[in-house]
Amino acid sequence: MLQIRDIIWRLLFIGCAAAIQVEITPTQGEISVGESKFFLCEVVGDAKDIDWYAPSGEKILPNRPDIFVSRSDETTSTLTIYHANVDSAGIYKCVAKNGDKEAQATVQVKIFQKITFESAPSPQEFSEGDDAEIVCDVISSPPPTLIWKHKGSKIQFAKDVRFKILDNGHLQIRSIKKTDEGMYNCEARVMARGEIDFRMIKVVVNVLPTIRARQSEVNATADVGSSALLACDADGFPEPTVTWAHNNVVLETGDKYSLNEDGSELVIKDVAKVDEGEYTCIAKNKAGEKAEEVSLNVFVQPKITYLNNQTAAEFDEQVTLTCEASGDPTPTISWSFENRVFAEGQQSLDRNIVVRSHARVSSLTLKNVQFTYAGQYLCTAGNSIGQDDQHMYLEVRYSPKIQGPVATYTWEGNAANISCEVEAHPGASVLWFRDGLQLPSANMTNTKIYNTPTASHLEVTPDSQYEFGSYNCTATNAMGTESKEFLLIQADVPSSPEIQGVEPFSSTAVVVFGEPDSMGGVPIIRYRVEWRLPGQQWTGREYDADDATSRITIAGLKPETTYEVKMSAINGKGESESCPASTFKTEPVRYSFTISSAIPPTLAATTLARIGEPSAPKLEVKVQKGGNSLKVNWIKQDDGGSPIMYYLVRYKARHASHWKPEIRIPNASEYVVLSGLDWNTEYEVHVVAVNQQGKSEPGTVSFRTATEPTTVPDAVDGGSGLGTGAIVGILIVVFFLLLVGVDVTCYFLNKCGLLMCIAVNFCGKAGPGAKSKDIEEGKAAFTKDESKEPIVEVRTEEEPVPNQEGGGPTEPNETTPLTEPDGKTVKDDSTKGETEVKNATAEVKTVPSEAPQANGNESKA
């Protein structure tokens, strides 16, 4: 290409001889703003100077920073425009000179603006519901045409009027939604140049938080070390931060408060009443913040703040007990005494007891004060949170009240105790009188007095009819005096019991009887049952009596035999006459067949045996004192012709699936005591009789234990209300009597002591070698061995226990005679068999020595 051009130039040079020609390459130029470009000026012919002129006509000097002119050789010069701007546009001229010869050429330089995005930030964030304006600032020359796209498609402004292109080219979205979020394409086009460019803009729509309290009200209890949990759940975009405030103070994790990781849960520790109030849960993000109130209600358990003991005198017009309590909600206050409960507005039928309450105070008014009002009163304050109980004591001072059985039965030679039970406050002194004379007296040396804090016991051992009759007990204290007459009556032997029927079996029989019409004034101790073959000697046995005794089993009988039976009753005075004899016949023995293995099969023989399994025993249940112990008695039925070896007892709660361990009882026993049972529970008991042939069918019985007793406020012990001074005085008297007793013992046994010194030095008498008459007279109030130590009875189920078929006498009471009857009694020792009981328990009863004691030969107050 250059060779052709050179040839052309040479031809022109030859043709024009000395002419100069100038050419600029490129002939025109378009430069984008900021770009650089150069132009080459070529001269044909001799040229001494080659210069460039700006559009303004000024010669372009070599030292300009934006436009640079350089001459490469004698025929070329270069114009370079650096970083063109709009001012750089125009017609540039290249002039070649050689003397007076000159030639020039021009080139038009056009400056244009390329598509330039001055501002199109990404991402751009807006709040939901706002009128959003998506910024996309773009320039070019000529100005560009903008096209907006969303999700790859051109936005159809006609279809969604919420979208609009503003005059500045920005995209407006009215009431922007979360669904409008995403990538937007801002595209610029210059049609003249076919130029196109775009920017991707991420649009984020922030959502104002929504907040919801899990509970608008939270209840808590104060002063119990508990915590309260307040919680709220917040939603929004971006994820909001949650804070809590109380009384305009922002709460932070510390000793009192604890927040979980996202702040949605606030734990208030050791809640107190001052923590009650409104708590604000605040959720905040870029879109704004929302708040929700949570109420904390702090309740306080009731607490009795005032309750004092009171003192009154019997027959006072009234006494008022006051109980104050705090708590939230305001507690209700009630009163209870023994088993009675008094609530607000309640009163007794006689209108002597009235309860009134106001706010947090309750008063219990007792009118016409009685001595029975004395004791512990329970004030109970309760609300929906809990309750508080406190006791107070009402002391009532009253004159003596004498109680106790008026009549006491005994007989000549048998000591009896007349008990004068005294209730008084303060404590009363007690005196005994007979025919106006204070006892003991010279005329009645066979009397003794024993005093306890709550009673006085007069022991009388009648020697003649004179000692029977009326005795006066007089009690006195600071509040007054009261007297009461007691009668000592001659006892008699009981009348005969009545045999109502006999239930015979093969070797035993059950005698059903009714108790005597007359007890003789003292309880029945035993029953004597006698039986015989008609015309032969009577065989008898005595059986202990108790309140439930109405059936007695006699054993050792022969099958299919006729017997006669009669009965008599025994009390302390003696034995009644026997009732008319009743006749019965025992049943035959059931037969069973056994094949003797010793006989060859060819000579097999059948041996008839008069033996078999026993019949099931009949069971009776008696609840013991306490309510959760039970005595199960059984009546032996047909023994099957073979003696009963033992009994098997098992029991279980009705709802339980397993039986308690089986108990094995010897054949001589007729009952078992089940203790430690569950309260208010139904039990099943099975008793099986076992002989050499096998076991009987079980005798069964069901029962329910008593309901567990609740604690009742303790009343004053015996109502005596002894003060500290009285107790100290009693201890001094007891100590003095102990010293006197020791000295008397030394006097009679070892001939030493204070009495011995007095007898020798003043009376000239030596100590006796035997007990005095006074001591002998006192032995009726104690056991036969004259011991005054506490009487201890230890009984286990492994030892023989008195039952229907024999045993020792029952424990005496106020009317129990204290001597054996004169008649001889045939005792059956078969009840002394050893009792086998698993997990045997022992019962120990101790009778203090201060009170008069009784055994089989004595009576007891």
TL;DR of this structure?
Helix content is 7%, strand content 46%. The chain is mainly beta and 861 residues long.
What does this structure look like?
This protein is 7% helix and 46% strand. It has 861 residues and is mostly beta strands. Residues 12-17, 592-610, 711-721 and 767-861 have low confidence and may be disordered. The longest helix is centred in the C-terminal third of the chain and has 27 residues, at 724-750.
- Uncertain runs: 12-17, 592-610, 711-721, 767-861
Shape: elongated
Mean pLDDT, as a whole number? 80
Whole-number radius of gyration? 62 Å
- The N- to C-terminal Cα distance equals 158 Å
Q: How can the largest sheet be summarized?
A: 8 strands, mixed
Helix content: under 10%
Strand-pairing-aware structural class: mainly beta
According to DSSP, the number of beta strands is: 61
Biased composition (Low complexity): 810-820
Biased composition (Polar residues): 852-861
Domain Ig-like: 20-110, 113-197, 209-297, 302-395, 400-487
Transmembrane segments: 726-749
